[in-house]
Amino acid sequence: MPADLVLLSARLLDPGSGTLLPHTALAARDGRISFLGDDRDARALAGPGSTVVELRGAVVTAGLTDGHLHPVSGAERTMGVDLSGCRDLDAVRTALAAAARELRPGAWLRGWGLDPNAFGTAPVGNAALGAVLEGVPALIDLFDAHSALASERALESAGIDGPRRFGQGSEIVCDAGGRPTGLLLEDAACALVEAVAPRPTEAEVRARTTEVLRGMAAAGLTGGHAMDANGDSLAVYAALEAGDELPLRLRIAPWCRPEADDDAVAELIRLQGTGGVLWRVAGVKLFMDGTIDNGTAWLETPDCHGESAHAYWSDPQRYTQVVGALHRAGVPTATHAIGDAAVRHVLDSVEKARAEAAGVVTHRVEHIETVPDDTVGRFAPLGVAASMQPTHCCEFTRADHTDNWSRRLGEERAGRAFRCRDLWEAGARVVLGSDWPVAPYPPLQVMAGARHRRPADLSLPPHGPDQALSALRALQGMTVNAAWAAGEEDRAGRLAVGCRADLTVLAEDPLAVPDTELAGLPVLLTVVGGRVTHRGAEV
C-alpha cells in the first residue's frame, strides 16, 4: 500500500541520541512511521493520494509535546483583555481603561495574565487600580491562574462582603477591618465571582479553542498533557475531533479536589481510557498546594510574610488515601506541588502507595519550584516524573531576587529555584511544559528558557544559570521524557519505524542553534499521526 506521507531531502534528528540519522527520507502509513531511508526508495512508496513534501535540508524530529497545558479552560480564560505584557500599574490601568471604554453598559470586563510584580511592593488589591474599574463588574485572572482580582461591583454581584471559610486552601483576602480587597485566592474563592459572571457560549469556547490549538500546531506542538477537564472540555475535544479540527494529540487528567468523596474518586477511575482517536482521559490531576506568589504554597517553614504554611487539602492524609486508591486502580496521578513541604508529602504518598500495592504506575509532580537536596534525590528511585515549566522562572522571577516570588521565599529558598538540572542529574525524568495560559505555549520558547534561564526578550540576566539544561536535554524534555511519563516510550518520542508519525520539522537543527535564537527558529511543518496539521509558507 502507498504511504500516506513522504518527507524527502530531510535531516532526521533522533531526540534519544541527539544524532542525525543516516537517512534523508521518512514515510508514514496508518499513523506510524513506516520507512526510514533514502529519497529514491521513499519516492517509490508514494501513491496518487500521498502527501509528498520536499524539505530541502530541513530537520525532522519527533513531535514536540507540552507536558502541562490547559487548552480549553485556557482558551476561555484568555478571551478577555491580555495583561501579560503589563510591567507596572500604569500599564495595567491603561489597558483596563481602554477595555472598559469598549464595554456596553452593565457588561463585565474580563482580563488575564496580571503579574503581581506590577504592584511592586504594594499588596495586590482593587484599590491600587484607582477609578479605572469604578462601577464596572470586572474579574481579572492573575498570571498563575490560582487567583483573581475582582472589582467592587463584581464583589457586590457575588454577595461577597467579608471573609468565608472553605474546605480547601482558598481565601477571600480582607483588610484589617474585614473588608474584601478584591483578591481571591484559589479555586473555591474565585468560583464565587465566576458563578455570577457571564460565560461565553459553547460556540464561542469551541471557536476560541480551535484558534488556540491551531496556534499550538503552528508553533510545532504535536501533543500535550492537558491538566484539567473542567467545564465542557471533554465535549469540546469530542466535537473538534468529529469535525476534523483537532490538530494535537491530547492526554487529559481531570481534577480531583479535596472535597471528593470515594464515589467521586471511583468516577474518575471509571473515566480512564475514554476519549477518541487523538484525545483520551489518562490520569488524574490533584493539588497539594497553591502558589508562592499568593502565599498559598505549602512550605516547610512559612514565607517571609508568615504565609504559605498549609496544604491545599485540609487533611493531607486524605490526599495520601486518594493517591493510594488511584495507584491500586492503575491510574497515574499528576500533583501540583510547588513548595518543599508539598513536594515532600507527594513523594511520601507515592512511596506509601508503591509499598502497599504492586504494579508499575508512573506518577508525576508538577512545578517543583523550590526543594532541598534530600528531596531532589527521591524522584528517580520512586519512578516519579518531574514536570517543570522553566519559563515560569524566566518570566516571573529575577536573578537579583527583587521579584515577588523571591522576596516571599527569602534568599536561601529562592536560591534553589526550579532545579531542572539537579533533578535531571539525580536521575529524574524531567518533562518540560508551559502551563499555558500561565506562560506562552510555543515549545521552542520553553526549550530556550530551559537552556538560557532568561525572559523571552532577553532583557534580564539568567536566574540560576547553573540549573540550565543542555540543548539535547531540553529537546528530550519535550519528546522522549514526555513519552515516558505517558507510558508511551515504546511508540512515541522517537524517530523509528513503528513509532507514531508525530513529527516537528524545523528550518535548522535545534541542537546547533544558539540558545538565544532558538525561540525564533521557523517551524516548517507539523505532523500528527501522519497528517499535516501545519504547513509553513517555506514548504
Structure description:
This protein has 539 residues and is α/β, with parallel strands linked by helices. 30% of the residues lie in helices and 22% in strands. The strands form 5 sheets. The protein has a 6-stranded mixed beta sheet, covered by helices on one side. Strands 9-10-11-12-14-13 form a 6-stranded mixed beta sheet, sandwiched between helices. Helix 9 (316-328) crosses helix 10 and helix 13 (390-396) packs across helix 17 (443-452). The longest helix has 17 residues, at 202-218. The model has no long low-confidence stretch (mean pLDDT 97).
Could you outline the blueprint of secondary structure elements for this entry?
Elements: E1 3-8, E2 11-14, E3 19-20, E4 25-29, E5 32-37, H1 39-43, E6 46-54, E7 59-62, E8 64-69, H2 71-77, E9 81-82, H3 89-101, E10 109-114, E11 138-142, E12 147-150, H4 152-157, E13 171-174, E14 180-185, H5 186-194, H6 202-218, E15 221-226, H7 233-242, E16 249-252, H8 262-271, E17 279-281, E18 284-287, H9 316-328, E19 333-337, H10 340-356, E20 364-367, H11 373-376, H12 379-382, E21 385-388, H13 390-396, H14 404-409, H15 411-414, H16 420-425, E22 430-432, H17 443-452, H18 471-476, H19 480-485, E23 503-506, E24 523-528, E25 531-535
